[in-house]
Write a structure and sequence with these properties.
Layout (H helix, E strand, L loop, with lengths): L2 H10 L13 E7 L4 E5 L12 H11 L5 E8 L9 H10 L5 E5 L5 E5 H4 L8 H7 L1
Parallel strand pairs: 3-4
Antiparallel strand pairs: 1-2, 1-3, 4-5
Protein backbone atom coordinates (compact mmCIF):
# COMPACT_ATOMS: atom_id res chain seq x y z
CA UNK A 1 0.00 0.00 0.00
CA UNK A 2 1.37 3.42 -0.84
CA UNK A 3 1.70 6.33 1.60
CA UNK A 4 -1.08 8.42 0.09
CA UNK A 5 -3.62 5.60 0.41
CA UNK A 6 -2.68 5.04 4.07
CA UNK A 7 -2.97 8.78 4.75
CA UNK A 8 -6.41 8.75 3.09
CA UNK A 9 -7.50 5.89 5.37
CA UNK A 10 -6.33 7.87 8.40
CA UNK A 11 -8.19 10.98 7.19
CA UNK A 12 -11.42 9.02 6.72
CA UNK A 13 -11.66 8.31 10.46
CA UNK A 14 -10.94 11.91 11.60
CA UNK A 15 -14.66 12.74 11.97
CA UNK A 16 -15.01 9.78 14.36
CA UNK A 17 -12.54 11.22 16.88
CA UNK A 18 -13.97 12.14 20.26
CA UNK A 19 -12.35 15.47 21.09
CA UNK A 20 -14.87 17.66 22.93
CA UNK A 21 -12.21 19.30 25.13
CA UNK A 22 -9.37 20.14 22.76
CA UNK A 23 -11.37 20.03 19.53
CA UNK A 24 -8.15 18.61 18.04
CA UNK A 25 -9.03 15.48 16.11
CA UNK A 26 -6.35 12.98 15.12
CA UNK A 27 -6.61 9.90 12.92
CA UNK A 28 -4.09 7.13 12.48
CA UNK A 29 -3.71 4.17 10.16
CA UNK A 30 -1.19 1.44 10.93
CA UNK A 31 -0.05 -0.95 8.20
CA UNK A 32 1.02 -4.43 9.27
CA UNK A 33 3.88 -6.25 7.59
CA UNK A 34 1.35 -8.57 5.94
CA UNK A 35 -0.74 -5.72 4.49
CA UNK A 36 -3.57 -5.31 7.01
CA UNK A 37 -4.59 -1.82 8.10
CA UNK A 38 -5.84 -0.83 11.55
CA UNK A 39 -7.19 2.63 12.22
CA UNK A 40 -7.65 4.65 15.36
CA UNK A 41 -8.75 8.07 16.54
CA UNK A 42 -8.10 10.07 19.67
CA UNK A 43 -10.65 9.52 22.42
CA UNK A 44 -10.54 12.29 25.00
CA UNK A 45 -11.70 12.05 28.58
CA UNK A 46 -12.65 14.80 31.03
CA UNK A 47 -9.73 13.54 33.11
CA UNK A 48 -7.33 14.51 30.32
CA UNK A 49 -4.60 12.09 31.39
CA UNK A 50 -6.92 9.22 30.45
CA UNK A 51 -7.18 10.37 26.84
CA UNK A 52 -6.23 7.74 24.28
CA UNK A 53 -4.28 8.96 21.28
CA UNK A 54 -5.09 7.82 17.74
CA UNK A 55 -1.74 6.08 17.34
CA UNK A 56 -2.23 3.94 20.45
CA UNK A 57 -5.84 3.21 19.50
CA UNK A 58 -4.72 1.88 16.10
CA UNK A 59 -1.92 -0.14 17.69
CA UNK A 60 -4.26 -1.62 20.32
CA UNK A 61 -6.72 -2.69 17.61
CA UNK A 62 -3.90 -4.38 15.70
CA UNK A 63 -2.56 -6.15 18.77
CA UNK A 64 -6.08 -7.30 19.70
CA UNK A 65 -6.29 -8.87 16.22
CA UNK A 66 -3.04 -10.74 16.83
CA UNK A 67 -0.72 -8.52 14.79
CA UNK A 68 2.77 -7.79 16.07
CA UNK A 69 4.74 -6.65 13.01
CA UNK A 70 4.27 -3.23 11.39
CA UNK A 71 5.80 -1.36 8.47
CA UNK A 72 4.13 2.07 8.20
CA UNK A 73 2.15 4.45 10.40
CA UNK A 74 0.17 7.42 9.05
CA UNK A 75 -0.98 10.13 11.46
CA UNK A 76 -3.16 13.05 10.38
CA UNK A 77 -5.00 16.01 11.85
CA UNK A 78 -6.98 19.00 10.64
CA UNK A 79 -4.36 21.62 11.46
CA UNK A 80 -1.90 22.97 8.92
CA UNK A 81 1.08 20.65 9.39
CA UNK A 82 -0.27 17.60 11.20
CA UNK A 83 0.40 16.12 14.62
CA UNK A 84 3.59 14.83 16.15
CA UNK A 85 3.02 11.64 18.15
CA UNK A 86 3.31 12.34 21.87
CA UNK A 87 5.95 10.77 24.11
CA UNK A 88 3.55 8.11 25.41
CA UNK A 89 2.70 7.05 21.85
CA UNK A 90 6.35 6.93 20.90
CA UNK A 91 7.15 4.69 23.86
CA UNK A 92 4.19 2.37 23.24
CA UNK A 93 5.02 2.13 19.53
CA UNK A 94 8.62 1.26 20.40
CA UNK A 95 7.33 -1.81 22.27
CA UNK A 96 6.06 -3.33 19.02
CA UNK A 97 7.89 -1.51 16.24
CA UNK A 98 11.58 -1.55 15.55
CA UNK A 99 13.57 1.55 14.68
CA UNK A 100 12.84 1.08 10.98
CA UNK A 101 9.08 1.66 11.24
CA UNK A 102 8.22 4.43 8.79
CA UNK A 103 6.06 7.22 10.20
CA UNK A 104 4.30 9.72 7.96
CA UNK A 105 2.55 12.80 9.30
CA UNK A 106 0.25 15.17 7.44
CA UNK A 107 -2.16 18.03 8.08
CA UNK A 108 -4.77 19.71 5.96
CA UNK A 109 -2.13 21.25 3.67
CA UNK A 110 -1.34 17.75 2.48
CA UNK A 111 2.40 18.05 2.97
CA UNK A 112 3.93 14.80 4.16
CA UNK A 113 6.69 14.58 6.75
CA UNK A 114 8.52 11.26 6.73
CA UNK A 115 10.56 9.82 9.58
CA UNK A 116 11.74 6.49 10.86
CA UNK A 117 10.91 5.38 14.37
CA UNK A 118 14.61 5.85 15.14
CA UNK A 119 14.34 9.53 14.11
CA UNK A 120 11.11 10.01 16.04
CA UNK A 121 12.22 8.25 19.22
CA UNK A 122 15.95 7.49 19.32
CA UNK A 123 16.16 6.42 22.98
CA UNK A 124 13.17 4.36 24.08
CA UNK A 125 12.94 2.86 27.55
CA UNK A 126 13.67 -0.87 27.33
CA UNK A 127 12.85 -3.11 30.26
CA UNK A 128 15.81 -5.43 30.80
CA UNK A 129 14.64 -8.38 32.89
CA UNK A 130 18.04 -10.03 32.72
CA UNK A 131 19.87 -6.98 34.04
CA UNK A 132 17.27 -6.51 36.76
CA UNK A 133 17.69 -10.10 37.99
CA UNK A 134 21.49 -9.67 38.08
CA UNK A 135 21.15 -6.64 40.34
CA UNK A 136 19.25 -8.58 43.02
Amino acid sequence: MDERKLLQLAREVLPLAYAPYSEYRVGAALLTSDGQVFRGVNVENSSLGLTICAERAALAAAVAAGCRSFSLLAVVSEDELGPWPCGACRQVLSEFCDENLKVIISGKKGEIRRLSMKDLFPYPFIFDKEKLSQEK
